[in-house]
Amino acid sequence: MKLKLSTKFGLALLTLVGTTAVYANAPTVPTALVGPNHGAISYTTNVYSSNLSGFTQNETILPRVNSPQTEVTMVTGSGNTLIIQASSSITFAEHFVIEAENGLDARLVVDVENATIDLPESFGINLTNINTARAYEHTNYNMSRIVFDMNSLLSYEISLSADRTQIIINFAANNIQGLDVRHDGGYDFLWIRGDWAPTVTVNQHIDRYIRVAVEGDISDKAYALANRSFDMTFVRDVYYVDGYVVLAINEFANYEVIHFGNDTFIRFLPPTFRNVTIDRENNNLFLHMEGLHAVHVHDYRENRNVFTLNGDFSGHFGHGMIPFFGDYVDFIEISHSGGVTQFILHDSSHISSARFVNAYGGGFAIQSIHPRDLYDFVVFLDPGHGGTDPGAIHFGTVEANYVLDISNRVYTMINNHPNLRAFATRTTDVFVPLVERAEMANDVADLFISIHVNGFYRQSVSGTETYYIPRDDEGNWSITRNRVANIFHQNMLNALGLPDRGVRQSNLSVLRNTTMPSVLLEPGFISSPSDHAVLTSQAGQDAYIMVIYNSMMQVISEMR
Q1: Distance from CA of residue 388 to its chain's centroid?
Q2: pTM across the whole model
C-alpha cells in the first residue's frame, strides 16, 4: 500500500510550513504497521516527518550519545501529552508520522535505538487523539518501535527529558471557535471551526438520532446551540449530551464529513436506498420486489451475513448504508458489482444467522435470527494453534495443520445435518487469540470442542488425554463438563487404542473463558513414533473425526 501525506484534514501542520520533505533514510524494518481493522502496510518509501517546527530531513530528537542498552518500560498518556519511559539513558530516537492512502489510518512511529521493550504487543492509551498503541522489539536492528494509532494527523512537539530517560510528545490542542447547524445550497449541515479542521466521529443511532464527537472543548458553544429550534429538511432538534452533539433528524439520512481549511462540515444527504422497509422489532429487512432469489453466505468471522442477488438491481434498490440497530444487526450495506447485487448485514457482537423468506404483500424479507432459534444445537469447533503458532512439530507433522484438517472435516459433517450448526474459530491457517476464540463461542454455542494433538521432548511418552475445568454455574446445565470430558475421552480410547493418560483438569484459556460445556482433546502424542503412526494414518484420522462427531451426538442426547 502506498503511503502519502493527506491534505484533507486542513491541518495546522500544512499551514505552518510551506514545503514538505520526504524522510529519505527511513530504515527498512520488516514490521507491518497493522491497525485493528485494516491490513498491513509498510513504510519503506514516501514517509514524512512532522512537528511544530516543520517538516525536516532530520527527525532525531537529540544528538546520539553512547549509552548502555536500555529498556522501554512504560507509556503513559494524559491530556495532550504522551511519555515513553525508559529504564536508563536513551542512545538515540527517531520519529515520523504516516497516513495510509485509504484515509483511515494516521500513525505516529517512534523508534528507540539500542533498546529492548517490556510492553504488551497492543495496549490502550488514554489520550484524546490516540486510543491504541503497539510495541515491537527488533533484535536484528537493535531497536524497539512503538506505533501510536491516531484519529487524525495533529501537530506535535517531541523532546527528551534532561536525563534522557523519557521521550515526551506534546500534541497541540485544537481550540474550537465556532459550532452551528446551517442550511445552505439545499443541504443541512453541522459546521465546526477550530485552529485546524476538527476531527469528528459520527455514529447514527436508533430512532433517527446522529451522535457527533468533536475533537476539542465544545461545551459552551454546544449548550448555546442546544437551546435553539430548527426547521430544516433533516435536522429538527439539537442536544448536548455527555459531551456529544446529538442531532434528531426527520428521516433516514446519509451524511458525509468534509474538511476544508479550519472547518469541518457534516453534511446530511437524502437516503440512497429505496424499495426497502425496516422492521426492527422483528429483525426483518423487507425487499419490495417479486421473484427474487438469493445466495446466502454466513461470514461469521467477519460478523456479517451476505445475500447475493443474481442481477444488477441498483435502479430498484439503490445503494449505500441502511442503519438498522436491531437485536443482531448494526447496519446493512447495499452494493452492486459484476452484475450482482449484495445485501450485507453487518452484525453486532452476536454471531447471528439470517435467512431469505417469502414476505406478505409480494416481496421477500431478510430475517436475522439467533442460531439457537434456527437450529436444535450449535457447536463451536476450535482447531488449536495456527498461523504464527504451529503447535507441536514432530516427524514432519505440524499440529496446527493436522487439527485444522480434522476440524474442517467435522465442520462439514455437522453442517450437513439439517438441525445442527457448526462454527469454527478458524477454517484456514491463521492465528486466532485464545480469548477471542472463547468470546466467539460465548455468543452462540451449546458446546465448545478444542481439537489438538500432543507433543513432548521424550518419544517414550504416549497416550490419550482429555482436559476440562469445572464452573460454578454448572448446576444450571443439563450436563457437567466432567461428564462431557469423560464421553469424549472414553470414545477416543475405544477408537484409537492408545494408552489411557486420564481425564484431567487444567486452567487453559479456552476452557476458563468459555461459558458453556467445553472440552480440550489430546488423542495422542505425535512425538511418539507409535502414536504418530496411528494418528497420521487414514484410519486414525477418520477415527478421530468420527470420535468428535459421535461424542458430540452423545452429549446432545444427554443434554435433552
Answers
A1: 18
A2: 0.59
